[in-house]
Amino acid sequence: MAVQFRDYYEVLGVARGASEDDIRKSFRKLARQYHPDVAKDKKNAEEKFKEINEAYEVLGDPEKRKKYDELGANWRMYEQAGAQPGAGPFGGQPFSGQWRSPSGGPQSGYRTMTQDEMEEMFGNANPFSDFFSTFFGGGEPDEGAARARGGRKRQRQGRDVEHELELTLEDAYHGATRRLALKHDGHARTVDVRIPAGVGDGSRVRVSGEGEHGAGGAASGDLYLRVRLGTHPTFERKGRDLYAKVPVPAATAVLGGEAEVPTLEGKPARLKVPPLTQNGQVFRLKGYGMPAVGKPAEKGDLYAKVDVQLPASVSPEEREHWDALAKLTGAAAKSNSAA
Q: In whole angstroms, what is the distance from residue 258 CA to residue 162 CA?
């Protein structure tokens, strides 16, 4: 069976003399662009992603790239020889190559995927071209590979699935249970998920076995819920600490007294306000912050910022007292100036 030559340099959009770094950068960029999980045109993205993965599997490996470059230079001679699998122009032997280990590849998280990983993503059909299978996969083209498998059903663990979950700050403080409607592999089901107290914005909550179903009796993948916390009208969260403004009457700020501080427990805390407390002064209430995940008894702190409240209106009697206070403070100021 004749196979068609594939220009991997063209697939990755790099020159034939491109450095390893340039090839790697181009692969990462294209892998992000065409990954089926993020691309809008899923069908086109799948085919493009397969091509990109295959091209980098060869050009990202110095030994395979060297053999590929030699093959390109002698392709016409190979075609004239019949272009049959196993009849390569280098001593009659096809190129050998091992699938890249799942732990290999760039540290960025974008790497080539193994045949099993690609089949898991796109189905049981061999995701690599006849050209690649012939020269870099042990000489087995696509149809031959399918026949060699003989329809044997492989065991493959189901893929993990990730969804966003919106919570209020109160939900994050107390913990919450959510009933989710899930649809994977064409199967719909509901599952109750317990969200632990203390989760933060961007936290991932793992639900074991609720991802896509495995094949051939293998285990299902996991469901990961990425938490998104809405803004709160009273509290600002920083790690496990909470920050809030506390309204304090002007008289209390001057003379001292007590003020109520709202908390996520639902019951306000009492703050002792010392005399001559300044506007914007911050007080720490220990243990009124967010709980640690898995350790609800360990909580952060609540920082209360004093917001001195001036009266919106005054009665005639109150005005007399304010006038007296103004005269008193004015006289005191003159006395201090004279001294």
A: 47
- 91-132 pLDDT, tens digit per residue, is 333 333 333 333 333 333 344 555 555 555 555 556 677 777
Regarding whether 16 and 133 lie in a shared domain, the answer is yes
* Residue at a domain's end among 229, 253, 284: 229
Q: With b meaning 16 or more CB within 10 Å and e meaning fewer, what string describes 248-281?
A: beeebbeeebebebbbbeeeebebebeeebeeeb
Q: Give the CATH number of the domain where residue 205 resides.
A: 2.60.260.20
Per-residue tokens: 36:
């089926």
Burial group, residue 112, by CB count within 10 angstroms (0-12, 13-18, 19+): buried
pLDDT in tens, 222-251: 999 999 999 999 999 999 999 999 999 999
| CA distances to 43, 45, 69, 220, 262 from 122, in Å | 10, 11, 29, 17, 53
- CA separation for the pair 155, 217 (Å, rounded): 6
Q: Residue 287: which domain range? A: 236-327
Q: Do residue 219 and residue 279 come from a single domain?
A: no
Q: At what angle do helices 20-34 and 42-59 cross, to 10 degrees?
A: 160
- Are residues 213 and 274 part of one domain? no
